[in-house]
Amino acid sequence: MNSLIRFFLTVATFFAIAVPASAQEAAKSLDAKVNEAFANFTGPFVSFIFAPIPGTSFPWIVMWLVIGATVFTLYFAFVQFRFFGHAISLVKGDYTDPNDAGEVSHFQALATALSGTVGLGNIAGVAVAVGIGGPGATFWMILAGLLGMASKFTECTLGVKYRNEYPDGTVSGGPMYYISKGFDELGLPGGKILAVLFSIFCILGAFGGGNMFQANQAHVAITGITGDFSGLITGFIFAAVVFAVIVGGVKSIAKVTEKIVPFMGILYVGAALVVLIVNYNMIGWAFGQIFAGAFTGLGVAGGMVGALIQGFKRAAFSNEAGVGSAAIAHSAVKTKEPITEGFVSLLEPLIDTVVICTMTALVIVISQQLLIDEATGNYMLNEAGSAIATVDGNSGVALTAAAFGSAISWFPYVLAIAVILFAFSTMISWSYYGLKAWTYLFGEGKASELTFKIIFCIFIIIGAAASLGPVIDFSDAAIFAMAVVNIFCLYFLMKIVRAELVSYTQRLGSGEIKKFHH
Q1: Tell me: the pLDDT tens digits for 192-244?
Q2: Which residue stretches of the chain have pLDDT < 50?
């Protein structure tokens, strides 16, 4: 196994440094072959996940996520708003007992989970949503983010409650554990089968949205500055760097993410604020476009329903509420109160979707990259009629880069750095999610873990070489498939969460749960 690692790193280094310009064309030809094979292989799976509800154009999976988030919001009586202040106190460490079991702090767990969600879904994904669904998609994205806070609360509480704690201090948790153990506890059949199914989808999600999509859009951002070159080169560089981090386990990942996440968040939000300040006189108009577009569509393909579908799809892909992935990261937290990590986790969709995604959408709308028909006030469609026409025909991360660049010429360079950091942090977080699903299926152990990490890094290379279309379709489908299993099981398990919530609330009110002075 060690010789295999040395071989992998040697090849990665060779491609990163030594590939001559004369080999570029051959590599591009290989890119096309990789892309075609990938699209053919994943097509049927993607078609099933995004099949519309009969008689409508509304994908059944989007409705599944929205209904789930709404049910949890109502069932827990708007817990995301009632305990928001307490969640902040927990992240600050006010209630943290240093002797509790676990591997990482509340803040590290939040940073690790955020690094898996605050990524290119916030940059490229929002651009896709606004480019197809218009500014109105932003409204539905925000609503989905607010509702999704309750989904995160539910799954992350269960993740800690049913985690496995090992003698060496390490832990393993997530939906595969709370589904199998929780169903057994309630005397329900099928828990093991559903846990295995979730684990399979989680591994696919790790390879897709948490890996390939990130590598793909990072390559687009880099070539936008350096000029075109083969995606294989970017893939090998990222694979080598990611492998160097993830080989150290969750503590290594947490140490990296707790530094990268605040930095990249401040960098990106700061850049967006500069654009908004420069165009402060248009902020009111932009919000008007968002609200008008949410209920009329402003001429976009699909109208209001099109805006709603795109908004909910992008929010789900960005914040992953209901997917179950974040519960894996939060399971590693140091606490003896499962509900506390539920409170901490509800901050994620707020930061990811309500704040960062909205900033991206505002920058795109205010920069007027989307073309408007002056006669009607509606947005103009492209030649295919599938999306809004843009100034230079840009989409995805290129559209966001153009929006930032319209305010200050050198901003695309700042954005490129943010994209690379977002991609890197998302990949290392999702490697951990996929790893825990892998070890649930194939057993704990160094050999099993190393096998997964090497396969994960190979998929980084494939993702950088494939084109955006097949990659983003597969990414969405794999991650949404996780949510099918997870939300179904949460309906049965949510009464356990409510019992935890009632118990904790009573003890907090009586003063039994005290703050720790560090």
Answers
A1: 999 999 999 999 888 877 888 788 878 877 887 777 787 788 888 888 888 88
A2: 1-5, 7-9, 11-19, 21
Who contacts 203 (Cβ-Cβ below 8 Å, separation ≥6)?
434, 437, 438, 441
Residue 515 burial (C-beta neighbours within 10 Å; 0-12, 13-18, 19+): exposed
Secondary structure of 332-350 in HEC code, one letter for each residue: CECCCCHHHHHHHHCHHHH
The C-alpha atoms of residue 406 and residue 403 are separated, in whole angstroms, by 5
For residue 263, what are its two tokens? 């930095």
Residue of 81, 5, 41 lying closest to 477 (CA atoms): 41
Q: Are 222 and 233 in contact (CB under 8 A)?
A: no
Give alpha helix (H) positions in 164-248: 175-186, 191-207, 213-226, 231-246
Long-range contacts of 370-376 (CB under 8 A, 24+ apart): 370/130, 370/131, 370/134, 370/135, 373/299, 376/299
Distance CA 264, CA 125 (A): 17
**Best CA proximity match to 496, nearest among 80, 184, 186, 163:** 186
CA 317, CA 119: separation in Å to the nearest integer? 10
Q: What pLDDT is stored for residue 151 in this prediction?
A: 94
Q: Give alpha helix (H) positions in 347-445.
A: 347-349, 358-366, 397-405, 411-442
* C-alpha span between 184 and 168 (Å, rounded): 26
Among positive and negative, which fits the CA dihedral 208, 212, 216, 218?
Answer: positive
Residue written as token pair 């109160």 = 337
Question: pTM score, two decimals?
Answer: 0.81
3-state SS string over 144-158?
HHHHHHHHHHHHHHH
From 140, 407, 96, select the one nearest 272 (Cα to Cα).
407
Name the token pair of 492. 């049965």
Q: What is the pLDDT of residue 16?
A: 43
Question: What local confidence, expressed as pLDDT, does residue 154 receive?
Answer: 95
Residue 370, helix vs strand vs coil: strand
Contact by Cβ (8 Å): 35, 471: no
Closest CA to 473 of 65, 125, 114, 144: 125
- Do 31 and 463 form a contact (C-beta atoms < 8 A)? no
**Which residues, 6 or more positions from 205, have their beta carbon under 8 angstroms from its beta carbon?**
323, 325, 430, 433, 434, 475, 478, 479, 481, 482
Find out whether 18 and 263 touch, Cβ atoms under 8 Å.
Answer: no
Which helix (H) or strand (E) segment holds residue 380: the answer is none
Element (H, E) at 23: none
- 405-429 burial string, b = 16+ CB within 10 Å, else e? bbbeeebbebbbbbbbbbbbbbbbb
